[in-house]
Amino acid sequence: MSDTNASATPKIVLTGIASRLGLLIARRLHRLGSYRIIGIDLRDTPSLPKDVEHLQVDIRSKRARDVFRKDVTALVHTGVLE
Length: 82
Fold this sequence. Notes:
- It is a single chain.
- The chain is an alpha/beta fold.
- It has 3 helices and 4 strands.
- The chain has helices at residues 3-8, 20-32, 62-67, and strands at 11-15, 36-40, 53-55, 72-77.
- A 4-stranded parallel sheet has the order 3-2-1-4.
- Strand 1, helix 2 (20-32) and strand 2 (36-40) form a beta-alpha-beta unit.
- It is globular, with a radius of gyration of 12 Å.
């Protein structure tokens, strides 16, 4: 995907993507096909659709913060402390 197309596609960041709710939301958004989905969760998430990005990092990390620096259309926060 070129940079032009990437910036034109709305980017949705989904925290807690490894949770049941996070996976459900990611799959539904993926089916719509018009979003770039980036999930953030410390847990592994092997059952995600192929083109959903997953950062296996703590939400408080620099790498996670960097996701928010450019063109985030929406944040869906499903992460909870257990």
